[in-house]
Structure prediction request, 289 residues.
Amino acid sequence: MKILRKPEWLKRKLLSSSELGNVIKTLEKYGLNTVCLEAKCPNRNICYANGQATFLIMGDVCTRSCRFCAILSGAPKSLDPDEPHKIANAVRDLGLSYVVITSVTRDDLPDGGAFVFAEAVIELRNEIPGIRIEILTPDFKGNHKALDTVLKTNPDVFNHNIETVSRLYSIVRPQADYSRSLNVLKYVSRKYNSVIKSGFMVGLGETDKEIFELMRDLKASGVQVLTIGQYLQPSSNHLPVERYVTPDQFKEYENFGETNLQFIKVFAGPLVRSSFMAKDIWQKISISN
Prediction:
């Protein structure tokens, strides 16, 4: 199998700052996980250096085994009942005004862990007045009651990633379902007032025609903000990169989404990730509204 050489536009200089060490120490102090670390995000160093991190709740082991994701798959550990309080303490220590909370998928729990999301949002609202909160959730198997549990806490942004085009779902996300994820987004957009966000990767073998069709499906499902980034193979055990999309092509996706489909914002680029620059995107949305 031919391995594609990583292009220059995907190479990024490492940053260092006092904030980077501060974030790491804070996470260690409270025993918290981040998707930045567990998913091997290429922007981790930048976010940490800017004093930011995306919290990963309910442990660091996922009950699903998506073939693009670096997070460990297997039998999860018991939940930490103090996790919401620890997150609030960490957010306060870091001085964050905008926080993103995501999780591993917990199909072993009756509601998929929706109550943990809710407890975390409630704790943050109680402890840090004025905090803006974005939640990036799994599909909860399409369970509307689970979604209601989360969304009744009024997060500012509800994010659920579609990840890839319909044709590749059985390969990339064998335990997930394309239509189910669209229906999750559709349900939330019709019933709640949160900003609806989603994201996907390119470079897994999809065509541009399929990408544009996916974008239309997301728009029809009520998505307002979209992130599009390059898939990077986290290890030899994961799916290979089929192509590296150029920055100019990402700009085309962005223009198509904002001009043709009227998304409020499309944030597309080789190193774009779902929660990367989340606060900046929120601020742009607020200005445009």
Remarks:
- The chain has a mean pLDDT of 90.
